[in-house]
Amino acid sequence: MSESDNVVxxxxxxxxxxxxxxxxxxRSKPAVPLGGKYRLIDIPVSNCINSNITQIFVLTQYNSxxxxxxxxQTYRFSSFSTGFVEILAAEQTKERPDWFQGTADAVRQIxxxxxGWRIKKLLILSGDHLYRMDYRKFLxxxxxxxxxxxxxxxxxxxxxxxxxxxxxxxxxxxxxEFREKPTGAAxxxxxxxxxxxxLTKEEADRKPFLASMGIYVFxxxxxxxxxxxxxxxxxxxxxxxxxxxxxxxxxxxxxxDYWEDIGTIRAFYEANLDLAxxxxxxxxxxxxxxxxxxxxxLPPSKLHNCDVDNxxxxxxxxLNGVYARNSIIGLxxxxxxxxxxxxxxxxxxxxxxxxxxxxxxxxxxxxHIGIGPDTIIRKAIIxxxxxxxxxxxxxxxxxxxxxxxxDGSYYIRDGIIIVPKNGVINDGAEV
Length: 431
Fold this sequence. Notes:
Blueprint: E1 7-12, E2 33-34, E3 38-39, H1 42-50, E4 55-60, H2 65-74, E5 84-89, H3 103-110, E6 121-126, E7 129-131, H4 135-144, E8 149-156, H5 158-161, E9 165-170, E10 174-180, H6 184-188, H7 201-206, E11 209-219, H8 220-229, H9 236-247, E12 250-254, E13 259-261, H10 265-275, E14 302-304, E15 307-309, E16 312-313, E17 318-320, E18 323-325, E19 328-329, E20 334-335, E21 340-342, E22 345-346, H11 355-363, E23 370-371, E24 376-378, E25 380-382, E26 387-388, E27 393-394, E28 403-404, E29 411-413, E30 416-419, E31 424-425
Parallel strand pairs: 1-4, 1-6, 4-5, 8-12, 14-17, 15-18, 16-19, 17-20, 18-21, 19-22, 21-24, 22-25, 23-26, 24-27, 25-30, 26-31
Antiparallel strand pairs: 2-3, 6-11, 7-13, 8-11, 9-10, 9-11, 28-29, 29-30
């Protein structure tokens, strides 16, 4: 029997995604576009498929329409297979009239939907992390240690550890203590010898802490027991995991590779731009473990008289006389002559406008979907279906850190300009 037999994956779609607003104004966090053509949800789903785990539930409760559409149009397994990727949205029942109150409560509420699957192990994942992992190694560690719960951990430097839940282990990896974002002396007490997990002495000295990735394997029956024993516990990290450490065999599985929580605008922005670097930390060109997404059958992109470097250009784009540096240019982007794009993310468009539609909009003084001539964009995120007119300047010259425009046409977060989905920036506008 392989490690992936009788394993069901549950991907937590997250809450309202307020830290990613306004990208989550009209969509759930897992549906946020990534790398010009993907969505965040494609990362954990692809990791599952590449690990031969093909029974996958995605839990959501906020703005789930676009996520539902993406899942249904993308992940269709053979009718001779038992594989599926299915959305489970929060639902009110007589027994449970409330929405999901936290990560553990979300799993507790969907347990009735898991009856009849003969589940032995439940793999619980997050929908807003960027990483590539073979979950079979994770499951193997769980089996070999006869664990009730196994937590995937990252070796962390002291300066990074304060932002995580930190775990202390004994022996060959049994977890004996958990502390949420400890500092000072409380953090120092959580030091462990990470050479026990295969790190060299030098690496272990640099990274003496074990940070929880928020990714778990549970023995299914043990999970039901834990969720039932404390009906008021709503969160895995803060409540269920500490309780499990007290009475169960909880083991650590070390993941020592690139991993990024992209739950904030700054992290999202930096992770995306890094994808366009000559040697990115996360490689979409790994053919052994591909990242899957929706097949759109778009034409190749056309570039005329352009100067583009350190950038990614997706399918279906039309670029005329464009200067671009360190940027992502997403699906169906139309960018006119004289446009300069630097350190920016263009998410593209959901559809092509016809020549007739563009002319009709121009006659009404409405910019076409895309970027109009002679516009300059620097350090910005341009969401889908945005219309930016001629000669606009998106530069944040006033140096604002956080700002909301009165009409909602743009926002600034961490000094990054964000034009939300379907937004309009008129000719000559300056941001």
